[in-house]
Each structure stands twice: as structure tokens, then as C-alpha cells.
Amino acid sequence: MTAQIIDGKAFAATVREKVAAHVARLKEEHAITPGLAVVLVGEDPASQVYVRSKGKMTVEVGMTSFEHKLPAETSEADLLALIEALNADKSVHGILVQLPLPDHLDEDLVINSIAPEKDVDGFHISNVGLLGTGQKAMVPCTPLGCLMMLRDHHGSVSGLDAVVIGRSNIVGKPMAQLLLGNSCTVTITHSRTKNLADVVKRADIVVAAVGRPEMVPGDWIKPGATVIDVGINRIDAPEKGTKEDGSVKMRLVGDCHFDSCAEVAGAITPVPGGVGPMTIACLLANTVTACCRANGLAEPEGLTA
Ligand code: NAD
Hints:
Radius of gyration: 20 Å
CATH architecture of the largest domain: 3-Layer(aba) Sandwich
Structural class: alpha/beta
Oligomer: single chain
Largest sheet: 6 strands, parallel
Strand order of the largest sheet: 1-11-8-7-5-6
Order of helices and strands: EHEHEHEHHHEHEHEEEEHEH
Bound molecules: nicotinamide-adenine-dinucleotide
Number of domains: 2
CATH topology of the largest domain: Rossmann fold
Distance between the termini: 31 Å
């Protein structure tokens, strides 16, 4: 069997189109422009790239982007004061603090100072609790993107056996909650799980969120299963030659060994071009959802959990 490739790049474009259409309606019918504030502390190069592309895509769908770039030595009090101001600002519907923060800043304290209804990353403890109890929450973007792709592929995932590999607060745990909320039978696995291969082999849906290059081989996959590969890993790619400085070029791979998994699976997301593009699309979706909720308006269809 050769798996159907779930094209996250194309699917993310359709999500952004839906967001843009809803933003246009909010502007036209209610004179409201959704606004997303992104706060970056320090000069981490990867974070700078993420923040730039978030800002660009926010503007592309017609929303207002507020970027706050603070020096690495920003004090906790100053950062909390900025978040308090953004919480009170009616033109800001979503607030995202780019992680990781410099070591002297308490990430939990900072995230939990964001107004939960503006917490478009879904990391605030209130949103974690709301999601865990099946209530209306802001849902973390990466698992939300995975769920959207699964629903698009399967229609309903009700009754399916799902195995989530990884138990992080940003991917593994919320992913498991979402699958449970969609009536899957869910197993969460992690670094101490015994017989991981046997557990994965039972799954109709495998979501891998570990951060270990190509650790899931095709012979762990049940024939016809759907494989959602969240992992983003950089590995040496000597076949691509060397860079100007003489070092070997790199390429991105997922947590699943793509070629062997694609031989067995019914459907699979590639890396790159699978889950990755969905994450920013879902951030935009969460911002428009937060804006609708803040204004007591109907939420956009197909953009929430
Ligand atoms: P994390 O390091 O916080 O968590 C990794 C999890 O994997 C842990 O729960 C750990 O128990 C588990 N694990 C480690 N070794 C294992 C093993 N041998 N067998 C089974 N489980 C094992 O990572 P994270 O933040 O959840 O991210 C996971 C991966 O997803 C990373 O590659 C990250 O870059 C990627 N990621 C991608 C996106 C995206 O937008 N596509 C977003 C977030 C994270």
C-alpha cells in the first residue's frame, strides 16, 4: 500500500482563506478588525523567524499585527506590565508570547498572566482545564491543526484507536484531550513506555510528537492507519553537499521514517509540508475565534475544535 499524502501546506492555505473571509465579514458587517499581538523577548534567531512569518500572515488575512520586541534583559515586571496593557487593549484579541523565554523569566507566570480569552496559544492553565473538561477553550495550535487534518481525512474519528507518542504540554497532552473529546480511544505513550512498537501497531491513528528523527519505522504501523508526524528534526544531508563554511547541509525529517511508513499507512503527513504550516494557520483561526467570542458573535465554522 502507498499512503495518501496529507498536504498540510495546501490545507493550511484553505484554513487561511476561511480566516480571511471571516475577517472580511467582521470588518464589513461589524466594523471590527481582529488583532494579534506577538511578544518576543530576546534575539533568538529561530524565534525571530517565527515571529516575522506570524506577523506577515496575520496581515495577509486582513488582521492587525502588533509586534512587541523586547531586549533579552527585560525584567519580569516590565513584561507583565506589557501583557496587562495588551489584556486591557480592546483592539487586541489574541496575545502570543513567543517561547522559549530567557532563563530569568518564569514562563508559567508569564503565560498565566495573559487573559485566558486572549490566550491564542491555548497554554494558559484555564484553557488547559477547559479543554480537559470538554468545555469551550482556546486550543493549542499544533494539536488543533492535527485534529483539523484528521477530521478532513476521516470525516469522523469517533471510535478509532489513537496513539499519541509524546506527552508534552504543548502537543502530546492537548492532542490526546482533543482526540478523546472526538470519541477516539486514546493511548498516550512516552519515553518510559514499554513495547512502544506493539502499542503503536494497534492504532488507527498515530500522532508522533517526540523530536527524534525517524524513530517510528513502517513496521510499527498498522496497515491503513493514518500517521500524523508532528516532529521537526534537522539532520545532516551530505547528499545535498556542503555550505560555504564547509559544513554539511541539513534537511528536515519528522519523527516517522517517511518512506517505510508511507508503504504501510493509509495516509501520512510529510515533513516538511504537513503539520508545520497548519500551526500558524490555526493561530490565525484562534485569533478570529477569540475576536468573535469577545464581541458575542457567531464563531467561524470549521476553525475550532
Ligand atoms: P518535548 O521535548 O516537549 O516532548 C517530547 C516527548 O516525547 C516527551 O513527552 C517524551 O516523553 C517523549 N519521548 C522522548 N523520547 C521518547 C521515546 N524514545 N519514545 C517515546 N516517547 C519519547 O517536545 P514537543 O514540544 O512536544 O515537540 C515534539 C516534536 O514536535 C519536536 O520535534 C518539535 O520540534 C515538534 N513540534 C512541531 C510543531 C509544528 O508546528 N509542526 C509544533 C511543536 C512541536
